[in-house]
Amino acid sequence: MTARLDQPREIRRxxxxxxxYDPDSFGRLSERIARFLGTGRFxxxxxxxxxxWLGWNVFxxxxxxxxxxxxxxxxxxxxxxxSYAAPLILLAxxxxxxxxxxxxxxxxxxxxxxxxxxEYLTREIAGLRIALSEVVTRDFLRxxxxxxxxxxxxxxxxx
Length: 159
Hints:
This protein is mainly alpha-helical. It contains 4 helices and no strands. The radius of gyration is 41 Å and the shape is elongated.
């Protein structure tokens, strides 16, 4: 029987309850872990852990050693740690990429707005310059008035 797309799905019952988690809080936790894995403190802790592990399994009495010479259990533990660290680091990088993408879009929008504002102000300044070039200045008005007065005086002195 094919499912109809115009009707909601029926709720399927499972034996185990479905686990619900907040992806954002899980992402924040993964970022904290990834940030810690990239520090010198983690390297020091891991070095101390491996050194104690090796020292215990080499120098302890034989009946207290839990991981003899090939140290297979240590290899398993380090592989397990790496298998969890890699996806957490990738998740943290994906979240950072998402933040960078949003920041880039905001920067581009802000830049476009700044360019538009600059172009508008440039047009306004050009319009003001054109308008001011047509405005009569005081010196121009004085020279015109003096010329008119001279012309009037010249007309009055004519017989």
